[in-house]
Design brief:
It contains eight helices and no strands. By secondary structure, it is mainly alpha-helical.
């Protein structure tokens, strides 16, 4: 499942960036093509946080409304198009869950589920697999509790409060641990192993 959330290959990202740019200029055809190429991946992101199918469908629709409205604000220098869209979908899914007052941490513990899936786009398997291996190496370099905290927060959408409860730490400590862990991951992914 983690692999489904990773960005597609560079050439695929370039095509998505062009579609996103055109959608930002109001091109409905480009937006339809963008939806066709990315909706399955974004639906997967949302389903991890909102296992209720109807709620997930609502989250997907609302995510694409936001993507349509904000497509002109996408900045390729800040990340890949799919990562930008996945962040919107993830945030919308978290908002929907919180509106429904369901606790994300009440779901089964997802930490063991991260290695099960394969990349969604067969054309980019090799590059996605390499990106995944790099990410997994960097994650494995973190202490287990930090790795688990990162995965629960950014993959499964747990709130800081839920993490604080699970790991028996104050919320501010959880925020600090997440910030420092992300900095270590970023450094590792940038080649500073």
């Amino acid at each position: 499942m983690l692999r489904k959330n990773l960005a597609s290959s560079t050439s695929s990202s370039d095509g998505l960036a062009a579609l996103l740019t055109r959608a930002g200029a109001g091109d409905r055809d480009a937006f339809e093509r963008l939806y066709a190429r990315t909706s399955a991946k974004l639906f997967g992101v949302i389903c991890r946080i909102c296992p209720n199918r109807e709620l997930a469908k609502e989250g997907l629709q609302e995510s694409y409304v936001i993507i349509w409205q904000k497509a002109d604000t996408y900045d390729p220098a800040l990340g890949s198009p799919i990562a930008w869209m996945a962040r919107i979908a993830r945030n919308r899914a978290i908002d929907l869950r919180r509106l429904r007052t369901e606790r994300i941490s009440d779901l089964s513990d997802p930490i063991d589920d991260y290695d099960e899936a394969s990349p969604a786009d067969p054309a980019s398997d090799a590059e996605q697999n390499e990106e995944l291996r790099r990410l997994e190496r960097c994650l494995d370099g973190l202490p287990t509790d930090r790795k688990d905290m990162i995965l629960l927060a950014y993959y499964s959408g747990w709130s800081r409060e839920e993490l604080a409860e699970k790991f028996s730490r104050p919320v501010n400590t959880v925020k600090t641990v997440l910030r420092r862990s992300l900095a270590l991951l970023r450094e590792c992914l940038d080649g500073g192993d």
